[in-house]
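agent: user wants the full assembly modeled, not chains individually. Plan: 1) parse entity lines 2) check alphabet per entity 3) run joint structure prediction 4) return tokens. Steps 1-2 passed, two entities, 680 residues total. Proceeding.
--- entities ---
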Amino acid sequence: MQNQSNNFIALSEVAVQDKTMRSAVVFGTGNASTRRLASMYAAGEAHGEGLRQQGAEAKRRALRKLPELLELAESNLTANGVTVLWASDAAEANAHVRDIAKKHGLKKAIKVKSMLSEEIGLNGALESAGIEVVETDLGEWIVQLSGDHPSHVIAPIIHKTKASIRDLFVERFGMTPTDDAAEMVAFAREKLRAEFLSADMGISGGNFIIAESGTLCLVTNEGNGRLCTSLPDVHVAVVGIEKIVETFEDYATLTQTLTRSGTGQLLTVYTQMINGPRRPNEMDGPRQVYVILVDNGRSDIYATEYAAVLACVRCGACQNVCPVYRSTGGHAYGWVYGGPIGAVLTPLLTGIENASPLPYASSLCGACKAACPVDIDLPKMLLDLRRDVVEHGKNGRIWDVGIKVWALGNRSQTLFKLGGIAARLGQKVIGQRLPEPLAGWTKYRDFPEFAPKSFHQRWAERKKGTS
Amino acid sequence: MSARDKILGKLRAAQTPFTDVPPIETRLRVTPDIDPSPVALKARFLKQTALVAVKPWEVADDDAAVVKVMELLAEDDTVMAWDFDQIGLPTLEAALSARKIRVTHPDDGEVRVGITGVDAALAATGSVVLTSGAGRSRGASLLPTVHIAVVRAAQILPDLEAYFERVRAHGSDHFRQSSNIVVITGSSRTADIGQELILGAHGPVEVHVIMVG
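--- prediction returned ---
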């Protein structure tokens, strides 16, 4: 998808005025956070913190050995009968999926929700090759039907109201109008069941790959994940190279803290571990399984001080607690990932020059780090990225000049005093709204009033009075 | 250069991150408070299943289990099912044929009820673990609206960690003995529309556990 992240300020100005969207996002994220706290800390504060550290260490151990574990996973996946393919970038990943479809003569794909597939634009790439693609996660299906994009990593239509979904179903399929969400879900189940039964290709992402056994792991709630990976003859999984974990013990920690952090569930309804295609004695399951290991910028991140962001399990907890995300929703961030994780990943994956406002889309309050099940230090990364923005000269001229003037004024007492006098006089003339080119700073807030006397003046007066 | 060599080459060229991560000494269990006595495991399992909208039915023995399964089959003339020895209820076959109920193929998208056994059950989460294999289709626990799982009290383990410990005790290769392992915790659900939790998305709408013994 086209990266609009440099328009963050304009996009967020529009977003914060959308009261319907904001109340849906505040409600949904608030609920998720409450459930996360209840389940992560069910056995006490210290135990929950211990689980976060255990998760962080499991991911970091895996990242430390990433090249070795990728090779181990590859050989175990292959031994399980899976065809492993590698893709350096989006184009290569999409080409692999198209080639698989061509090789087996596949015409219709059903898809499990996958953020990586959004990142690489897989649906468009398949459709342009004449392959029909149907998203089957209810939220993703609604996103696809309305030509939208997901705005949250696990709740793709957190920005949409029930009424807008009803209208979509009525307009698109002539559904009998209803305000009952259960009736809408039943309607979708029937519509999508026909798609499940007529597809010849299932596409998924992957939450984890366990290296020691070559096991592909998926967490889903609706059942579409199992249907997509069980019914069609060919299953293709596109998985980021950072999704490797070493052992089932590490996976046990991570899959349970992922679900607790995402939705507050102890486990998702379906926690699936896939060891390749159906065996000769089985009556169902795919006959071919492909795993495409996708880099798309991850190996570049691996070589930087931001490597810890590769530990992310995409639970969305940081989005749920972020005061910026909760005000703007996910679309304002302009690309696939919103919220704190998006503000870090987008500049790293798409280039800092294409996402320079995002590191500033944070109050650095630290809620994201505290919520993260693998304890990624997102606030520190956002600060470091701000430094990178400055070093890339992406700060804007006004800011650069302003900082220079400020530094000059602070180095000389005379200039500092003169500056104070000028500011107090200036404010009498212009009031609480700054003129261009500084007007943006006071667009939504008053310029604070200066005290009538400076500290120096008061200090001198006080010394005079008491001596 | 192949994508594989390029990716692995870049990762190897980078300075290895996280060299300071400590070795594993002890692991916390995600749910630390499970009493492993058989009585407590069963009580906890039943309590947790109710929390995830699974309907538990306690029965004394195999005969009572067959009676309960037959009760749950309303007007059905067809079911999807694992092989009867895999369900662990050999007399179910006779009970079904006495009512002229046919067992259908595991890709039948219309059938209402699926009957399976389980490989294990997990007390901490109220989950059942199913592995695919000969006579154990994926479809029976997936396509029908109603999934009936037959669980024996002795199959209940404390948690997911304990299940993996059991597999590992048989040798690490046992992790891939089945092409598909699924831990099912509750009935299929979605909260995508207006954040309302709705039971019954694409998988079974109802999950029944027949708890034998």
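agent: reporting back. Chain A has a mean pLDDT of 94. The first strand of chain A starts at residue 82 and ends at 87.
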